[in-house]
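Supplementary Methods S3. Complex input for the adenosine-5'-diphosphate-bound model.
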Amino acid sequence: MLRHLVRRTSSIRAAFPPDSWQAFTACLPRTSRFMVGQLDAVAASAALHPIHPPNHSRGLTTGTTLTGNAASNIHAASAESASEFLDDPGLLRDEAYVNGKWVKAKGGKTYEVTDPATHVVIARVPSMGAADTRGAIEAAAAAWEGWKQKTPKQRGDVLRRWYDLIQHHTMDLAKILTLENGKPLAESRGEVGYGASFVEFYAEEAKRTYGEVIPSPTPGRRLVTIKQPVGVAALITPWNFPIAMITRKAAPALAAGCPVVIKPAEDTPLSALALAELAERAGVPPGILNVLTCPREHAAEVGLELSTSLNVRKLSFTGSTKVGKILMRDSASTVKKLSLELGGNAPLIVFDDADIENAINGVLAAKFRNAGQTCVSPNRLLVQSRIYDEFVSTLAEKVANLQVGHGLQPGVQIGPLINPGGLEKVQRHVHDAVKKGAQVVTGGDLHALGGTFFEPTVLGDCRPDMLVFTEETFGPVCSVFKFQAEAEAIEMANATPFGLAAYVFAGDVGKGWRVAEAIEAGMVGVNEGMISTAVAPFGGVKESGVGREGAKVGIDEYLETKYLCLGSFR
Ligand code: ADP
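Predicted complex, serialized as structure tokens:
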């Protein structure tokens, strides 16, 4: 479909004299103009990376940077159209947000943000580093006292306005999200709603940060605890949920009375800046919410500054276990309070008495969200031998029908992978599995759209010595393993240093419960593939992290419990 649209756009364009094409597109409605710009870009990108016929043996597509005339044409076309296709173009910001001001990097440099589906440059944002980070931390520390002194209700009122604004601008936020992340627009809308739900929840929860009165063992004393904000919180977030990962941290922090310094992922800063714009409109005071943008090359220096600063009292990170360990090590120097939500390697167990249709729907919902680039996506499907063949063939049929394309295109269910590095990992996992004897039931290769698109894939006959078992694939690949008995399934599920999410599908509820208890994971879905919600605690065990986000426990991550002992009572 996308290829067809690209060809149609190219051929219509070819029929116009060069100057009249721009005049023609200028007359189109805003959204159509944007789509034409995107399709032009895909066409130009395909010219650089020819579209391959399916099943053709292909190498890695790592050279996806556009160069030469095509790149400059695309840039000129998209920079203009990207802000025009929003109802409120003011949400597309290209400066960082520090101390209530929109600012450039101290060094004056910028870096490019691209659409992963077309490699079109959408914006250039400040390339910040250690000095910018110090400035943001100082601003946050200076603003803390005023925010801390507000009542929980006053802070909750500001959060409530932020929530209303996020809801009001759902469509614009979703478009920005799809543009920079690649996920289908319907998923982006879902993410905006999910992200907003944390703001709504913590707007209320601010009022419920209760202390305790403890019966004293000694006469003449009264013992109480009060909850106080921990202080400036550094929030480092990933690209796979550019809105929800920020609100899941920022909302409880702000509700608790903590200012935040946010470092969004380099691939997806625009969603973070749009959230900052709405926070400003909601009345978040200067210095209380800051967003630093930086390219990957600066992530380590910004991270070091955040984790070693005495003024930063809390660090919350979502991302890889590798980076989480670095931040944990560096934060030790200031004994910082930490929340780490790290990598997963989720097992999904299907017992032979399960409702197979429900299990397959669970797999489709949990596995293919964001093209499989979700830390709670099932990575290893463990299927009991008696139903194995039927399960694999039914799953493969459904997976083969998933629609792949640009996330703004209606009906698309799978977008591109975020970047060439993500694609390379998926390819490496598939190659390794096939080399060791896995069977490609469907997919298994680069998608005909080229770029970082990968075919939705089902691999059968997988074994524990494959990378698809030991590492998180983070792509649209279902790796299916066979087991015979319950104990074997539990052993396989736990044979990993990770423990974020897990799923069990079983007809016998007792078995589902028993296995859920036995699996080493922070969250288990029993006969359910979609488990994330603002009202339940999200987090992992083992190398999947420490701390919990969401729910009433989520705000405790930003609070200290202070004990007061009142003596001399008669
Ligand atoms: P991924 O591989 O999915 O990008 P990462 O853990 O590398 O996951 O990235 C998650 C977030 O951590 C991003 O915002 C990224 O910029 C940031 N990051 C990467 N390296 C560091 C580092 N050394 N210190 C602090 N943050 C980092």
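The domain at 346-538 is CATH 3.40.309.10 (Aldehyde Dehydrogenase; Chain A, domain 2). The longest strand covers residues 222-229.
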